[in-house]
Structure formats: C-alpha cells, structure tokens
Amino acid sequence: MDKSALSLLTDGLARIAVTLPADGPERLLAWADELLKWNRKLNLTAITAVPEVIEKHLLDSLAVLPEVTGATHLLDLGAGAGLPGIPLAVALPTLEATLVDAVDKKVSFMKSAAVKAGVTPRVKARHARAAGNPAQEGLPTVDLVISRAFMDVGPFLQLARHYVIPGGRIVTMLGQAPSEAALRDLA
Questions:
Q1: Residue 136: which residues within 8 A CB-CB, separation 6 or more?
Q2: Rg (CA), the chain
Q3: Range 126-147 burial, b when 16+ CB lie within 10 A, else e
Q4: Which residues are 96's β-sheet partners?
Q5: Are residues 61 and 83 in contact, defined by beta-carbon separation less than 8 angstroms?
Q6: Mind listing the pLDDT tens digit for each residue in 65-84?
Q7: E-assigned strands of 18-141?
Q8: Count of C-beta atoms within a 10 Å radius of residue 161
Q9: For 150-176, what is the mean pLDDT?
Q10: Which pLDDT band, with edges at 50, 70 and 90, does 44 fall under?
C-alpha cells in the first residue's frame, strides 16, 4: 500500500476517534493488501478498490471498538475475510479472537491475513458452521460474540446466546437497517 492509503486510513481513524497501537495502521494495510491479492483469484469480497476497503471494511470494523473494549476473547461468527475480528485484534493487543466461517477458502484467507496483520497466535480461524452447539462444533464460549451483517438480528441473537458466557455481550453490526417487524421481534 502507498502513502495515500495510509493517509486515508489515518484520516478515517481520526474521524471515528480510534487510536491504534503505533504499528496498527501498517498492520491493517498489510491485511488490506493481502485481501486484494487473494480477492483477484478467490472473490472474497465485492469491494476491490483500496479506498473502499479502508472505508467499508477497516473503518467500519473499528467503529465498534467502544463496544468491544474490555473483552478478553471474541468469537466472530460468519467472519468472512476476518471482519471485524482481525482489525479489532490489531486495535486491542491483548484480545484473543476466534474467527468462524463455513467457507473453507475464507478460512484459508483469514489464516494468512492474521499472519500479515501480526495477530497470530491470538487470532484463530476455524472452519465450522455455527449451529448453536459450541462443544460439538469445537467452538469456544466467550465474553463477546460479534458478527458483521452475518444474518438478521433476531436469528443472530438466538444463535449467539449459545456462545456467550454469563455476563458476556453480543454485538451485531447491521448491513442495513432492520425492518419494523424485526425491531418488534427484538422488543
């Protein structure tokens, strides 16, 4: 990545009031570079331009940092390309993360990207289909379960509760605003 990418990321971090460790921006851009390389062959995401990767993937993932701060281990269900788990692990150097996806090529990418982002061995990518039985699936129960537009909010909350320890939190990032019916179901 070039200086313009670093500038875009730095400006965006200031806009959302996120401070990273000193080497954080470079590590995030290393992840982004890896994403763009893999994406040419495997179509991991429809977003292929550097400015969009920074805005729609990295900054979007880091926008939930206040909700994640204080967690010790997060489980990212439907992690896809490692979002938001890898950027959050870069931002929080003591955070452990388990990234789960049912698509093997995405898990392979996440393993490579975690190395590029410098978050191994704290971040593990797992090939699994989360169905609400963590012990049978070999998935941990954690203090924070998160997803980024993985599924509708109601079904996600029902699924995620099986993976969160008592007193833990569930954070869901919406791809788009929920419908009126979905909001009524949450009440």
A1: none
A2: 16
A3: bebebeeebeebebbebbbbbb
A4: 73
A5: yes
A6: 999 999 999 999 999 999 99
A7: 73-77, 96-101, 123-127
A8: 12
A9: 89
A10: confident
